[in-house]
Design a protein that fits this description.
The structure is a homodimer.
Chain A: E1 16-17, E2 24-26, H1 50-53, H2 59-66, E3 71-73, H3 76-82, E4 90-92, H4 94-100, E5 105-110, H5 121-133, E6 138-143, H6 147-159, E7 162-168, H7 169-174, H8 177-184, E8 188-192, H9 198-206, H10 214-226, E9 231-233, H11 240-245, H12 247-258, E10 267-271, H13 276-290, E11 297-303, H14 308-311, E12 313-318, E13 327-332, H15 354-361, E14 366-370, H16 372-386, H17 392-405, E15 413-418, H18 426-433
Parallel strand pairs in A: 5-15, 6-7, 6-9, 7-8, 10-11, 10-15, 11-14
Antiparallel strand pairs in A: 1-4, 2-3, 4-5, 12-13
Helix pairs in contact in A: 3-5, 4-16, 5-6, 6-8, 9-10, 12-13, 16-17
């Protein structure tokens, strides 16, 4: 038959910027002019030491929580798993640009290609690895919409660790798909508050019909881990080691962007709930800024319903409702704050990562509150132009960007951090399209 | 601050084989020793001509249905959209290999990275484009689980075409998420049979409680398009032009595999419902085989509940229930066959693409029936090892591959076509894990 070699496959896709997988995590603390304030022991109010954290976290993660090192090598077993989907794509969103009638060049860094559909997997895999090194056989955690719970369930399956998840009841009841995903990976999931823990029973006694909150779920997961010598606790955001793991996003994005835009980014937009997504994306851009190689603005898009950066106080507060966690210096709406049940479950957290809060105080990051309506309006435009249905969390970053560049003649380079896809959040889109909000 | 450039991003990801986006579609018909039997007019039983098809399809697609050309250039507007997610990844599934205790090297070609999560987008974009060239303002179509309906809704949004979808009622009721996805892209969706068409009303009169079938939904969509001069009909599989568009999958896979495996593939596994996924994946591999460059076996994995290749007759039959479509020479279980309501909605079709049926007759492709239980068992193993939750359709290919390579010392190179992800099919996984089937 034919003997020709088909001349039909081009060498590169010009719309998809390629790069490799980071070999190290990047720690912005090493480059900041002032140190991030330490976490305090809830009893003594003194800075927590390794011994205080040992009941909850493995040694490798405790070290990362306070390390002054700029670069920390990613262990090979973690990198092997990252390579299943990393580097995540950075792409030019030309159709979205056209819809916005802008001369800005919009690049999207897309974490929805990870197995569970969000950036959460980046830290989940690292946390499961360090726990496996210490011989931990069970991990407990909390989850809101379920992105983190499913990411940790996947990571646990990779390292032979049982994962037990307390999911905020409002999400557990209304969005069961992510619970099914946790079970598919072999995880176990309970609605929170549950009657399985002392703190859960106390919350139920106070309000038997509570729809739960992330702070309540944290208390339950921490309590179970603290009382089981073979178990440890895993937190999906907020802490320094989680922020560190997410730096793979920004390192790739900087390298990918530099390959096509010599001057780097002018503005970087990301959504911020606990802060790990935005910190992971933006800290390598801040490295570039602090080194004088570029000068990007960083915008933290947060929901109007839970505006910890734009409306919260910067002070020490607990990470959970029961007050079991260390005191963290952060922007907070107060540990008892229960936000409206907006669809962006991952942004319904009363506080903000101490590392990110610190950069806000240093003037390196600015907050912007976005209404749920504006967020979804931007999400629908993005879906119809670029095809990807964004996670409700990510729509906040898209909306902030859209408002900034729409009908603009400024030829700026902007980056949107698209933290995940919204395929499991489609009922929220249906509600929006039906005029529900 | 720091002035060093971070040495933390590797040049390439060794686990992810890179290649470009095809510039042409590949037509296996040009290389076959015998022509694919023509479609026949349902009235005259003569081969259908362009005039017969004009009420349903635009000129560009009618030409592709009968073209003898080996390569057809992909129009630039289509290629631009392909570049949003193509080339799709080909990756080595090492963790799955370990779980299967095999020396086979398993490569996975993954179409779930497309905006709607499956291979269907490859043809949807092409079909919307050729319709837009002819000034068509509305497309009608059918869908089962909703992969095709959502793909066409996305494609319509790209070219300013209204899309109206008839979805098999069983799926419309039990799996609403893909309906929400169609609406998010701007499409309209009706359960089928509906009271909006003559054929739908006739089916409802016969059985008011019918859960519908793809054949019934085709009849409704064809009827509406045939009666509206501004509308045309779009079919998501079966026809030659659909198979042609899907050839981007296999062309990329051949190029990607050749970059790491000098002798190409030994066996290629894909799932087959209407046939476009498997044909798209395998026909470029058959090009290599017919040219003597490699010698792969091609396995069509189909559900035991709808075994058109392994149990059907090879004869002329209608593509729909009402007998409105041309007669197609294919492996068929009969146009009135209603398969059990298995979760792999995309595999519940009574017939098989004439192009693929023809290669089966020529001995180039072999069928293998897989039970739903075995399919999901393999899907869960794949999810826990590789992270990706496969579409129920794709689990059939994974199961066929797993059965072949498990506990084997043969150092073969096998390829699995992973046609899509199963994030919107998670209730089916939950049912399987609860022992439901």
């Amino acid at each position: 038959m034919t003997t020709e070699i088909a001349p039909t496959v081009e060498a590169i896709n010009p719309e998809l910027v390629t790069a490799g997988v980071p070999t190290h995590w990047y720690n912005l603390a090493a480059d900041l002019p002032e140190p991030i304030p330490p976490h305090l022991h809830p009893g003594t109010k003194e800075p927590v030491g390794p011994d205080d954290l040992a009941p909850l976290f493995p040694a490798g993660l405790i070290a990362q929580e306070v390390t002054p090192e700029r670069y920390i090598e990613i262990p090979e077993p973690v990198r092997e798993i990252y390579q299943m989907w990393r580097p995540s794509p950075l792409f030019r969103a030309r159709k979205f640009e056209q819809a916005l009638n802008t001369k800005a060049r919009i690049y999207v860094k897309y974490e929805g290609v990870s197995p569970v559909g969000s950036h959460k997997t980046n830290s989940a895999v690292a946390q499961a690895y360090y726990n496996s090194v210490d011989g931990v056989t069970k991990l407990t955690t909390e989850t809101g919409a379920g992105q983190w719970g499913s990411a940790l369930s996947f990571a646990g399956a990779q390292f032979g660790i049982d994962v037990e998840v307390w999911q905020v009841r409002a999400s557990y009841d209304s969005k069961p798909y992510r619970g099914y995903l946790m079970k598919t990976y072999g995880g176990t999931v309970h609605p929170s508050p549950s009657d399985l823990t002392e703190s859960g029973r106390a919350m139920l006694a106070k309000d038997p019909h509570t729809t739960g909150s992330l702070g309540m779920a944290v208390s339950e997961a921490v309590e179970v881990a603290a009382n089981d010598p073979d178990a440890r606790y895993a937190l999906g955001s907020v802490l320094n080691h989680v922020v560190l793991h997410q730096s793979v996003i920004g390192q790739e994005a900087v390298a990918q962007l530099n390959a096509v835009e010599a001057d780097g980014a002018d503005v970087v937009f990301g959504c911020a709930g606990g802060g790990s997504n935005l910190a992971g994306l933006s800290f390598p851009f801040l490295r570039e800024k602090l080194a004088g190689r570029s000068n990007p603005r960083i915008v933290a898009a947060e929901p109007s319903a839970c505006p910890s950066i734009t409306q919260g106080e910067y002070r020490y507060d607990h990470g959970d409702v029961a007050g079991l966690t260390p005191l963290l210096k952060m922007h907070t709406l107060g540990m008892d704050f229960v936000p409206d049940p907006i669809h962006a479950g991952g942004l319904r957290y009363h506080g903000m990562a101490p590392a990110l809060s610190h950069t806000v105080e240093l003037g390196l990051v600015e907050g912007q509150a976005i209404s749920q309506h504006d967020a979804f309006a931007a999400g629908v435009t993005f879906a119809r132009t670029q095809g990807i249905v964004p996670a409700p969390e990510s729509t906040h970053a898209i909306a902030a960007c859209a408002a900034y560049v729409a009908d603009s003649d400024r030829e700026e380079v902007v980056v949107i951090g698209l933290s995940g896809h919204g395929q499991l959040d489609l009922p929220a889109y249906a509600e929006y399209l039906d005029g529900g909000f």
